[in-house]
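hey m, so remember when u said the C-alpha coordinates were messed up on ur end? i reran from scratch. heres the input so u can diff it against urs
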Amino acid sequence: MTESFNSDTRILLGRKLSGRYVLTSLISSESGTQTWLAKDLVLSREVAVVLTDPFQVTNSDHISLFRKEAKLISRLNHPSIITVLDTTGDEDLEAIVIELVKEETLFDYVERTGPLPHTLALQITQQIADALSYAHENGVFHETLDPKHIFLCPDRGPQVSGFGFNKFKRRIDIESITDTQDEADFRSDFIDKTSASTTHADIFSLGKILQYMLVG
Protein backbone atom coordinates (compact mmCIF):
# COMPACT_ATOMS: atom_id res chain seq x y z
CA MET A 1 0.00 0.00 0.00
CA THR A 2 2.88 2.33 0.69
CA GLU A 3 4.14 1.83 -2.86
CA SER A 4 0.82 3.21 -4.11
CA PHE A 5 1.33 6.31 -1.98
CA ASN A 6 4.75 6.91 -3.51
CA SER A 7 3.84 6.13 -7.11
CA ASP A 8 0.22 7.00 -7.85
CA THR A 9 -0.27 10.75 -7.59
CA ARG A 10 -3.54 10.80 -9.52
CA ILE A 11 -5.60 9.92 -6.46
CA LEU A 12 -4.24 12.99 -4.65
CA LEU A 13 -4.31 15.53 -7.48
CA GLY A 14 -7.01 18.11 -6.75
CA ARG A 15 -7.49 16.84 -3.19
CA LYS A 16 -8.67 19.55 -0.77
CA LEU A 17 -7.37 19.40 2.80
CA SER A 18 -9.37 20.98 5.61
CA GLY A 19 -11.46 22.74 2.99
CA ARG A 20 -8.54 25.10 2.37
CA TYR A 21 -5.48 23.61 0.66
CA VAL A 22 -5.92 22.17 -2.85
CA LEU A 23 -3.12 19.88 -4.08
CA THR A 24 -2.20 20.96 -7.61
CA SER A 25 1.06 19.18 -8.53
CA LEU A 26 3.70 16.92 -7.01
CA ILE A 27 6.98 18.66 -6.22
CA SER A 28 9.00 15.76 -4.81
CA SER A 29 8.67 12.33 -3.25
CA GLU A 30 10.82 10.73 -0.57
CA SER A 31 10.52 7.61 1.52
CA GLY A 32 7.23 7.97 3.36
CA THR A 33 6.57 11.60 2.42
CA GLN A 34 5.44 13.65 -0.57
CA THR A 35 5.72 17.40 -1.07
CA TRP A 36 2.95 19.02 -3.11
CA LEU A 37 2.36 22.44 -4.58
CA ALA A 38 -0.99 23.60 -3.24
CA LYS A 39 -3.33 26.56 -3.44
CA ASP A 40 -4.37 28.20 -0.18
CA LEU A 41 -7.99 29.14 -0.86
CA VAL A 42 -8.26 31.36 2.21
CA LEU A 43 -5.26 33.60 1.55
CA SER A 44 -5.13 33.11 -2.24
CA ARG A 45 -1.48 32.06 -2.32
CA GLU A 46 0.62 29.07 -3.27
CA VAL A 47 2.14 26.95 -0.52
CA ALA A 48 3.98 23.65 -0.19
CA VAL A 49 2.25 20.77 1.59
CA VAL A 50 4.26 17.86 2.98
CA LEU A 51 2.12 14.73 3.28
CA THR A 52 3.01 11.82 5.52
CA ASP A 53 2.18 8.25 4.59
CA PRO A 54 -1.65 7.98 4.69
CA PHE A 55 -1.42 4.34 5.70
CA GLN A 56 0.04 5.46 9.04
CA VAL A 57 -2.87 7.78 9.90
CA THR A 58 -4.57 5.05 11.92
CA ASN A 59 -1.36 4.51 13.91
CA SER A 60 -1.85 6.54 17.09
CA ASP A 61 1.89 6.56 17.89
CA HIS A 62 2.65 7.92 14.41
CA ILE A 63 0.05 10.67 14.71
CA SER A 64 1.18 11.61 18.20
CA LEU A 65 4.78 11.89 17.00
CA PHE A 66 3.71 13.86 13.93
CA ARG A 67 1.80 16.41 15.97
CA LYS A 68 4.57 16.73 18.54
CA GLU A 69 7.19 17.34 15.86
CA ALA A 70 4.91 19.72 13.94
CA LYS A 71 4.47 21.78 17.10
CA LEU A 72 8.23 21.98 17.63
CA ILE A 73 8.96 22.83 14.00
CA SER A 74 6.28 25.51 13.85
CA ARG A 75 8.03 27.40 16.66
CA LEU A 76 11.22 27.81 14.65
CA ASN A 77 11.72 31.41 13.58
CA HIS A 78 15.06 31.90 11.86
CA PRO A 79 16.01 33.82 8.70
CA SER A 80 17.60 30.71 7.16
CA ILE A 81 14.83 28.20 7.96
CA ILE A 82 11.77 27.80 5.75
CA THR A 83 8.68 28.74 7.75
CA VAL A 84 5.99 26.25 8.79
CA LEU A 85 2.61 27.91 8.21
CA ASP A 86 0.08 25.33 9.37
CA THR A 87 -0.71 21.69 10.07
CA THR A 88 -3.66 20.13 8.36
CA GLY A 89 -5.22 16.91 7.15
CA ASP A 90 -8.43 14.95 6.91
CA GLU A 91 -9.66 11.44 7.59
CA ASP A 92 -6.75 9.69 5.85
CA LEU A 93 -4.00 12.29 5.45
CA GLU A 94 -1.80 14.28 7.82
CA ALA A 95 0.25 17.19 6.50
CA ILE A 96 2.46 20.15 7.31
CA VAL A 97 2.03 23.36 5.30
CA ILE A 98 5.21 25.34 4.65
CA GLU A 99 6.05 28.46 2.71
CA LEU A 100 6.72 27.85 -0.97
CA VAL A 101 10.26 28.62 -2.08
CA LYS A 102 10.75 28.51 -5.85
CA GLU A 103 14.45 29.33 -6.00
CA GLU A 104 17.11 26.85 -7.09
CA THR A 105 18.45 24.28 -4.67
CA LEU A 106 22.12 24.23 -3.76
CA PHE A 107 22.37 20.84 -5.45
CA ASP A 108 20.99 22.12 -8.75
CA TYR A 109 23.16 25.23 -8.59
CA VAL A 110 26.43 23.34 -8.03
CA GLU A 111 25.53 20.76 -10.68
CA ARG A 112 24.90 23.60 -13.13
CA THR A 113 27.84 25.90 -12.31
CA GLY A 114 30.45 23.66 -10.74
CA PRO A 115 32.34 24.24 -7.46
CA LEU A 116 31.71 27.53 -5.68
CA PRO A 117 34.28 30.19 -4.80
CA HIS A 118 35.70 29.53 -1.33
CA THR A 119 34.33 32.78 0.09
CA LEU A 120 30.78 32.01 -1.06
CA ALA A 121 30.94 28.39 0.14
CA LEU A 122 32.08 29.50 3.59
CA GLN A 123 29.40 32.18 3.76
CA ILE A 124 26.66 29.67 2.94
CA THR A 125 28.11 27.20 5.45
CA GLN A 126 28.10 29.82 8.21
CA GLN A 127 24.46 30.72 7.56
CA ILE A 128 23.40 27.07 7.57
CA ALA A 129 25.42 26.46 10.73
CA ASP A 130 23.59 29.32 12.42
CA ALA A 131 20.25 27.78 11.40
CA LEU A 132 21.26 24.35 12.69
CA SER A 133 22.51 25.78 15.98
CA TYR A 134 19.23 27.63 16.47
CA ALA A 135 17.17 24.53 15.66
CA HIS A 136 19.24 22.33 17.97
CA GLU A 137 18.80 24.80 20.82
CA ASN A 138 15.05 24.38 20.32
CA GLY A 139 15.20 20.59 20.32
CA VAL A 140 14.82 20.11 16.55
CA PHE A 141 17.25 18.08 14.44
CA HIS A 142 17.33 17.70 10.67
CA GLU A 143 18.83 14.21 10.20
CA THR A 144 18.64 14.25 6.39
CA LEU A 145 20.42 17.50 5.55
CA ASP A 146 21.81 17.59 2.01
CA PRO A 147 22.13 20.14 -0.85
CA LYS A 148 18.61 19.35 -2.08
CA HIS A 149 17.18 20.66 1.21
CA ILE A 150 18.90 24.03 0.81
CA PHE A 151 17.39 26.72 -1.41
CA LEU A 152 19.46 29.69 -2.59
CA CYS A 153 17.40 32.87 -2.34
CA PRO A 154 19.12 36.03 -3.63
CA ASP A 155 17.26 38.29 -1.21
CA ARG A 156 17.28 36.01 1.86
CA GLY A 157 20.35 33.82 1.57
CA PRO A 158 20.23 30.01 1.92
CA GLN A 159 16.95 28.54 3.20
CA VAL A 160 16.92 25.14 4.89
CA SER A 161 13.89 22.88 4.49
CA GLY A 162 12.97 19.47 5.86
CA PHE A 163 13.44 19.85 9.61
CA GLY A 164 11.67 17.09 11.51
CA PHE A 165 10.29 15.24 8.49
CA ASN A 166 12.69 12.34 8.91
CA LYS A 167 10.60 11.24 11.91
CA PHE A 168 7.76 10.27 9.57
CA LYS A 169 9.74 8.41 6.93
CA ARG A 170 9.55 4.65 6.84
CA ARG A 171 12.45 2.75 8.29
CA ILE A 172 13.80 0.83 5.32
CA ASP A 173 16.87 -1.31 4.85
CA ILE A 174 19.86 0.85 3.92
CA GLU A 175 20.82 -1.61 1.19
CA SER A 176 17.52 -0.93 -0.57
CA ILE A 177 18.32 2.77 -1.02
CA THR A 178 19.79 2.55 -4.49
CA ASP A 179 18.02 5.51 -6.09
CA THR A 180 18.92 8.02 -3.36
CA GLN A 181 22.66 7.42 -2.99
CA ASP A 182 23.42 11.10 -3.52
CA GLU A 183 21.37 11.97 -0.43
CA ALA A 184 22.88 9.08 1.56
CA ASP A 185 26.37 10.44 0.86
CA PHE A 186 25.61 13.41 3.11
CA ARG A 187 24.35 11.38 6.08
CA SER A 188 26.58 9.93 8.75
CA ASP A 189 26.73 6.17 9.32
CA PHE A 190 25.37 6.79 12.81
CA ILE A 191 22.07 8.08 11.42
CA ASP A 192 21.84 5.24 8.90
CA LYS A 193 22.30 2.64 11.61
CA THR A 194 20.30 4.05 14.49
CA SER A 195 17.96 6.80 13.17
CA ALA A 196 19.07 8.87 16.20
CA SER A 197 18.62 12.64 16.27
CA THR A 198 21.98 14.13 17.18
CA THR A 199 23.81 17.39 16.81
CA HIS A 200 26.86 15.52 15.56
CA ALA A 201 24.94 13.97 12.66
CA ASP A 202 23.81 17.35 11.36
CA ILE A 203 27.34 18.74 11.75
CA PHE A 204 28.67 15.80 9.75
CA SER A 205 26.17 16.53 6.98
CA LEU A 206 27.13 20.21 6.96
CA GLY A 207 30.80 19.27 6.58
CA LYS A 208 29.95 17.05 3.62
CA ILE A 209 27.92 19.88 2.09
CA LEU A 210 30.89 22.24 2.41
CA GLN A 211 33.07 19.65 0.69
CA TYR A 212 30.47 19.33 -2.08
CA MET A 213 30.38 23.10 -2.61
CA LEU A 214 34.18 23.25 -2.88
CA VAL A 215 34.84 20.25 -5.14
CA GLY A 216 31.47 19.44 -6.71
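this time it looks ok to me. The mean pLDDT is 83. if urs says something different then somethings off w ur setup not the seq
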